[in-house]
Amino acid sequence: MIITDVKSYTECFIQLANVLDLDENRMTYHSMRVAALAYKMAMNLNSPNLLEIFWAGLLHDIGAFGYNDFTISTADSISIIEKEKIYKHTLKSSFIISHELPGEVYKVADFVKSHHEKYDGGGFPEGLSGNEIPICSQIIKIADDFDAALRIIPEVSKDGIYNMFRENIDCEYSSEMVSLLIETMEKEDYFGQIEFGAQVPIITNAILNSLPEYKMFLGTDLLEKITTVFADIIDAKHEETLGHSSRVAAYSQHMAEVLRINAKDVMKVKLAGFMHDIGKSAVPRTILNKTDNLSPYELYIVKGHPVLTMDILRRMSVFNDIVEIAGYHHERLNGSGYPSGLPAENIPFLARIVMVADVYDAMTSGRRYQKFISREDSIDYLKSQKNILFDADAVEALIEVSSRELKNLAAAKKPERASD
Ligand SMILES: [Fe+2]
Ligand SMILES: [Fe+2]
Ligand SMILES: [Fe+2]
């Protein structure tokens, strides 16, 4: 059993929202703005579900990773196939929240499921109407649409936005919900505060720091479950890296066991394996998918991903002790790596394990910019770089582990998501 506090738990959801919104198909700070606005509206309503509404705002579109958020906001103008996929994101989001994330967040699955229902019954996925739609879902919906209105209609005035919502009373929203939105915006000029994107993470952080002290009891698999969801998001970004993070996690874990490292550190390298590439969420697909050589600028973007990985991990207290283990996977013992070109003495042993696991999987899984290399050739290469680029013990451990057909083990099929 792990005891954590509500802030550390919620920090993970803020970073899940951040990783989703960093994708180039998405809108930066969308999930965070929806959460911040929904939270304020719930406060004005004296809702007993403040925390749940904040979580629901952060995670409402988690099932839509990889989709284009613009199409989510303009669902009326797209093809039936696309529409079907978009309808399902509500179900997929609520499935991830109820079945894949650990702890009490399952309580918000139904609020999230109904965040695209319309007051007149014309929404999805169930066509609920009026009071059948949970109040929390109605709040998320109007906050979601407010964020879209701010971005999609350029230079629209505050009154223009308010009128747009007023015109949709009784079809999209109840009149109470529209009044609540406008009241919330007008109180202490919240509109002015939340209008600018750069303010949104600051507001979100202030909400995080105002959360009541509250201890939570969670299973020991808390961190593993969260990292698996992060890994799914990043691996889905790039079809050829599908399963990469979970394989790196499995290789790292088994290498650490071969090296007879204590159980706590085995868990650290496993989690670092899942998380090492989360910084790639901000690298555009055009660069990840490019077959030609990268331009100096593109290379600069790619080489920045470990820095972002570390930045995201630092923002979650529960992951503070794996920042370097995950973030140094492109450093090399002779100082030729990136982002910092660290010398060997500054690269901890656990980071050296993840480094070798990452290189081996990149070579043996074959990517566009790097052809598939057989296990034997990959091992020959790693051996040739012992004590030059890679740690000798880590290479030996990888050799032992790779003979066990771990690839199949790591890629073992997970139970399918209800709405996949
Ligand atoms: Fe949505
Ligand atoms: Fe949304
Ligand atoms: Fe990687």
Radius of gyration computed on alpha carbons: 23 Å
What ligand species are in this complex? fe (ii) ion
Main pleated-sheet profile? 2 strands, antiparallel
Percent of residues in helices comes to 55-70%
Number of individual domains: 2
What would you call the shape?
elongated
Category from helices, strands and their pairing: mainly alpha
Q: Quote the average pLDDT.
A: 89
What does this molecule look like?
With 420 residues, the protein is an all-alpha fold. The chain has 22 helices and 2 strands. It folds into 2 domains: 2-217, Hypothetical protein af1432, CATH 1.10.3210; 222-410, Hypothetical protein af1432 (Orthogonal Bundle), CATH 1.10.3210.10. It has helices at residues 6-22, 30-44, 50-59, 69-73, 80-100, 109-113, 135-152, 158-167, 175-186, 190-194, 200-210, 222-236, 244-258, 263-275, 285-288, 296-303, 305-314, 323-327, 349-365, 375-384, 392-402, 406-410; strands spanning 2-5, 215-218. The protein is elongated and about 70 Å long. One fe (ii) ion is lined by residues 60-61, 72, 89, 115-116.
